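Predict the holo structure. Ligand: NAP.
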Amino acid sequence: MTAVQEQTKTVVSKRLEGKVALVTGGSRGIGAAIALKLAAEGASVVLSYASNKGAAEKVVAEIAALGLKAVAVKANVTSAQDSATVVAEVAKAFGNAKIDILVNNAGVFEMGPIDAIDAEQFDRLFDVNVKGVVATTVAALPQMNDGGRIINISSGAADATMAGASLYSATKSALDTLSRIWAQDLGKRRITVNSVSPGVTVTDMFKAGIPEEGHQYMIDKTALGRLGQPEDIADVVAFIASDEARWITGQVINVDGGIVI
Ligand code: NAP
């Protein structure tokens, strides 16, 4: 095969054929788009959810309709027991397979002005957005193939210094630090670790968190002049998961149409 033929083959073949992915919070929004995209690129996918079984099963059915494989598992990322269960489910669902791609996507958002912050809000945000990522990653690592990918879904909020969002932003800054240091820790296993940081993206989280009168302000602040869609994020996650991104690790990749420049 000539070099050009080899290149063409790479372009048309599915980039994640034979890979196994675990996506936390894959029932809705960005996680659902990531699960769909990774499957469309050839990966077998286990997606977890907190409570929304119907939405999770809908994503599985959409993937199955494409003739591809996915399984949904109810697993709260804050529970070490649930994290172990979801990791075990990967091997069960896909013939003892190990994980190639872990996407730590599950997250929660709350605004909290400084004078309204309390310990409960701190725990709600840090338990899911930080402790949940640690619990899932620690459970997954022994079951991960060398050369794998860990992709942490962070947020432009880590850099955007958005007034009233200090705790949420701090959880995502913590996540970016984990990505950078885990990249060093896991380099010897050729596992890359990166943060993918969405800007404002139209999901249930966005609709619940940002009042409609604020949407135009977000659009005006975005260089490309529109709100993000979950697929805008999923396409970049699929690239980072692919062999084409093998030399990228320890990075925070903003995927935001230029809202944080
Ligand atoms: P979303 O629409 O609210 O969906 C959240 C997903 O996470 C759902 O699948 C939900 O499951 C799951 N989840 C929540 N808590 C969980 C828990 N304790 N255990 C397991 N799963 C849990 O959110 P999204 O907008 O797609 O956000 C996804 C990620 O992107 C988050 O990390 C978020 O911080 C980040 N992000 C979002 C935006 C944005 O503008 N949307 C911007 C920057 C970063 P159920 O369906 O069962 O509830």
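The longest strand covers residues 144-153. The chain has a mean pLDDT of 95.
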